[in-house]
Amino acid sequence: MRYSPLFMLLLLVFPSCEQEPASPVDLTPYVLELPPHFPYPSIPEDNKLTEARVALGKQLFYEPALSMDSTISCASCHKQALAFADDLPISPGVKGRLGFRNSPTLANLAYLSVVNKDGGVPKLDLQALVPIEDHAEMGLSVLQAADRLNEDPYYRDAFEKAYGDLANPFTITRALGAFQRTLISANSTYDQYLMGEVSLSPAQERGRLLFFSEQTDCSSCHGSFNFTENGFFNNGLYTTYEDWGRRRVTGLPEDDGVFRVPTLRNITMTAPYMHDGSLPDLQAVLQHYNSGGTAHPNKDARIRPLQLSEQQLLDLEAFLHTLTDTAFLTDPRFQ
Ligand code: HEC
Ligand code: HEC
Fold first, then answer.
1. Atom 16 in ligand 1: residue holding the nearest Cα
2. Ligand 1 center from residue 96 Cα (angstroms)
3. What does the alpha-carbon distance between residue 110 and residue 124 come to, in Å, rounded to a whole number?
């Protein structure tokens, strides 16, 4: 039998054909466990959740080889014990380089429509390209990252099982996306309260009523099961924003200082707060809202002096403490 030139070419392009047969793709599904008040998130057609993809994504999440000098992994800035956020205003990347935003929690990312604080990334499955290639984060080209992974028999086999392919920009970002979709936090004290398993303390209950009241309007931006509706607003932090927020993406002056409303789940674990980590603790955040913020032209009308008493600020804080999900912070599936 004679091989056509095209077939010979394919052999060159896919050298693995000459080696032992690749392990078959393992499509055992990974099913998210959710309480009744959580909807099932939409999962992209080209990246269905499977056990093999989630396991590979977890390995990559903790893999320092994805950074230029093999010192930084995703987990360097997204620590499980801190709800996959960090406790510094700005977390250093390779060689101690500093970016300009605070590391956010990665809890319940599966429900994001657009990703990053300015919505600059259209979907989670592309987001990993940003930190891997960013000069101030991991500083490595994703193609180099793929070459490194493909030198390792463990990864060659794991990528084959997960995607029937080698490590490449598509499979690396998809695997990280799959793992990150499993980071569901749905078992806080507040969730247990909703399911009738525990009751709230008097202070927490007063705080809950305030949070969901028109007196504070907190829940009109931080509403729904995830304590955000993923809207974009200016919450009056500055009169002049060094970080333009959404304006960096749209170029529009009306988007100056506008950021995606973050989830408040596990908020006690993710200090310091806001896009630049400038507010050190929850009382500072609550004082900010109570003061009505600055006079920025884009400031949303709901950010206005709230006239809350010291006791009411403490009650709101007590309620925010009920959003901590200790099982999430120690879940062995994420380690
Ligand atoms: C040097 C610290 C650092 C490293 C390393 C890092 N991140 Fe991040 N991450 C951040 C910061 C800061 C942001 C906020 C960026 C923004 O919103 O513009 C962020 C945002 C994100 C988001 C968006 C979350 C949201 O709410 O929109 C995801 C997802 C994410 N990172 C995943 C990863 C993954 C996966 C890796 C590893 C491949 C990684 N990060 C590595 C600091 C880091
Ligand atoms: C108009 C919409 C809006 C309202 C109303 C609002 N927030 Fe926010 N909130 C935001 C936005 C936008 C951010 C992110 C700002 C940034 O990153 O700089 C934010 C950030 C926060 C943060 C910090 C989150 C983090 O991870 O850094 C907390 C805590 C918070 N809000 C609590 C509250 C509370 C409590 C109330 C009611 C008193 C409230 N918010 C009312 C839009 C709103």
1. 116
2. 16
3. 8
Find out whether 162 and 56 touch, Cβ atoms under 8 Å: yes
Per-residue tokens: 214: 């028109």
3-class DSSP state of 228: coil
The domain covering 17-184 belongs, at the CATH homologous superfamily level, to: Cytochrome c-like domain (1.10.760.10)
**Closest-lying ligand to the alpha carbon of 95?**
1
- Over 80: is that where the pLDDT of 301 sits? yes
Out of 61, 137, 226, give the residue to mutate to test ligand 1, the one with the largest number of ligand atoms within 8 Å of its CB.
Answer: 137
Mean pLDDT over the full length of the chain: 94
What is the Cα Rg of the chain in Å?
Answer: 22
Minimum CA distance residue for ligand 1 atom 43? 77
Q: Which ligand is nearest to the CA of 262?
A: 2
**307-310 own/partner pairs: CB under 8 Å, 24+ apart:** 308/210, 308/215, 308/216
| Ligand 2 center–CA 289 separation, angstroms | 8
Q: Which of 3.40.50.300, 1.10.760.10, 3.40.50.1000, 2.60.40.10 would CATH assign to domain 189-330?
A: 1.10.760.10
Q: Give the Cβ contact number of residue 98 at 10 Å.
A: 11
Strands (E) located in the chain: 232-233, 259-260
| Nearest-CA residue for atom 8 of ligand 1 | 131
Instruction: Write out pLDDT tens, residues 178-237.
Output: 999 999 999 999 999 999 999 999 999 999 999 999 999 999 999 999 999 999 999 999
150-173 pLDDT tens trace: 999 999 999 999 999 999 999 999
